[in-house]
Amino acid sequence: QVQVVESGGGLVQAGGSLRLSCTASGRTPNTYIMGWFRQAPGKEREFVAAVSRSGDNTYYADSVKGRLTISRDNAKNTVYLQMNSLKPEDTAVYYCAARTTINIYAVYSKDEMYEYWGQGTQVTVSS
After folding, report:
1. Which end of the chain has fewer CB atoms < 10 Å from its terminal CB, N or C?
2. Taking Cα atoms as reference points, which of 93, 87, 114, 84 lies closest to residue 24?
């Protein structure tokens, strides 16, 4: 059984920063592609960023490039989403997702490619 748990959400003013964390536990840690998605009220869930098993490859949605950074620390089995220069439109529930893979360089942006999901953490950016 794989458990995905997010933490680090909260309320921040526009222009501020937050760092989200996510751990994926299971029999074979660090064999997952990890991704972040978000869902704003009244909108569909959308891709934010993903990182490969090795950490060498990352991929971002155009709307967050240059402001959000995904990284992973395999020694801690943790993935991070550093969010800088936050905007009110970044307000959403942020979900962490994992997919097992043997390809250490692959990344995915489609949510149907991910097997395991966390419960989500709320990020609210005030103007």
Report:
1. N
2. 114
